[in-house]
């Protein structure tokens, strides 16, 4: 009777807690991945802006020499100087973006230091990537539909709602039952 229903409710509660734990674990992994990729992206952006700044510095040096020798007008010389200043600002912005991404990862992981991340080596012989290379549009649509179906079947929020409904039904059964 009521004891059995209470036991079943406790079992459902345990299932809900396990589902919540699995959901939270995936949430944390996703959060770390997002922040890790943001740091990598910021590092790439910084490398690009540094190269761009170096190019602008070389162009400015060449423009300086041409200007000193009378081969370049003042307007053109100032244009090169302006481009260099613009590239310096872009480089500083990229550096700030990288620091912010690192701080976001640090804060998410509750670290006392700024993490230095490295890009993972690519796997040229990864079986999944090799299989995906041969996919056409139809195969991609089918794979997407299958992924969506699996996502719906494995959705932790829907599982929790199902367990909540079961818990509520059992609670109503206990309250209405004469046993």
Output the keywords.
83% helix; mainly alpha; 5 helices; single chain; 179 residues
How would you portray this structure in words?
The chain has helices spanning 2-68, 74-109, 127-133, 137-153, 156-176. The chain has 179 residues and is mostly helical. The longest helix has 67 residues, at 2-68. The protein is elongated, with a radius of gyration of 29 Å. The model has no long low-confidence stretch (mean pLDDT 85).
Please state the overall shape, judged from the principal axes of the Cα atoms: elongated
Enumerate how many helices there are, as a single number: 5
Level of helix content? over 70%
Structural class determined from secondary elements: mainly alpha
What integer value in Å does the Rg equal? 29 Å
Give the overall pLDDT as a whole number.
Answer: 85
Q: Tell me the series of helices and strands, N- to C-terminal.
A: HHHHH
Q: Can you summarize this structure?
A:
With 179 residues, the chain is mainly α. It has helices at 2-68, 74-109, 127-133, 137-153, 156-176.
Write the layout of secondary structure elements.
Elements: H1 2-68, H2 74-109, H3 127-133, H4 137-153, H5 156-176
Helix pairs in contact: 1-2, 1-5
């Amino acid at each position: 009777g009521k004891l059995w229903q209470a036991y079943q409710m406790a079992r459902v509660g345990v299932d809900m807690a396990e589902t919540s734990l699995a959901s939270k674990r995936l949430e944390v992994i996703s959060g770390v991945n997002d922040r890790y990729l943001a740091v990598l992206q910021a590092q790439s952006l910084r490398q690009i802006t540094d190269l761009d700044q170096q190019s602008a510095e070389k162009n400015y040096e060449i423009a300086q020499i041409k200007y000193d020798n009378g081969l370049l007008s003042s307007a053109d010389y100032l244009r090169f100087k302006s481009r260099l200043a613009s590239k310096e600002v872009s480089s500083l912005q990229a550096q700030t973006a990288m620091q912010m991404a690192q701080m976001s990862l640090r804060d998410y992981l509750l670290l006392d230091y700024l993490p230095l991340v490295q890009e993972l080596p690519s796997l040229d012989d990864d079986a999944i990537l090799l299989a995906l290379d041969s996919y056409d549009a139809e195969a991609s649509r089918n794979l997407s539909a299958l992924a969506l179906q699996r996502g719906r079947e494995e959705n932790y929020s829907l599982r929790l709602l199902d367990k909540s409904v079961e818990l509520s039904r059992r609670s109503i059964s206990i309250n209405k039952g004469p046993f």
